[in-house]
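We modelled the chain as a single entity of 191 amino acids. Its sequence is:
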Amino acid sequence: MLPSVGAALLFGAAFLWLLEQAATIEARRGLVGVVALLTILGVVRSAQRNPVWRDNLTLFTQTVQDAPRSYRAHYVYGSELFNVGRAGEGERELRQAIALSRNDSDPYNFLATKYREAKLYPQAIPLYRTALELRPNRPDSRFGLAYSLLYNGDPVGARAQADTGLAYGQLKSYFEFVQKQADSVLRARIP
């Protein structure tokens, strides 16, 4: 709301300046009429748009309609669809966000995490890898990749990712968990 207050103050100051510059009473009336018309149009537009703000799902549905080429619109809409239990639709929107995205790791990481939570590790792994290509020091993507590799049967890869994650110094207990689990699996393989 604060930007709206600033815009209103600027608009009001511009109106007063123009009003002072008007040489005749007709010019002043014309200026007042234009400002009144713009105000009415703004109020009507605001009233039409107001129902969109009912809840996040309604807002993000409209955002995708308003900006269909925006990866961010599809990303937040897909995320919200997952939040309300509509995973299939959420996955489609996140795939659309990924198709439109050029260099943001967020949609890759979010969808990969949803796959990991559903124990769909083979689907999660390439998305985590891409997220890390885009942002190599992202700890949540690194942990997600390590965890997915571990539970997809690659304890060596999981251990390597956990070691790298620990070197960054974040999510220490998570990476230590993966290390311990990977080491346990590797010890069990030794005859």
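As a brief sanity check on the tokenised model: The longest helix spans residues 25-49. Residues 55-102 form one domain.
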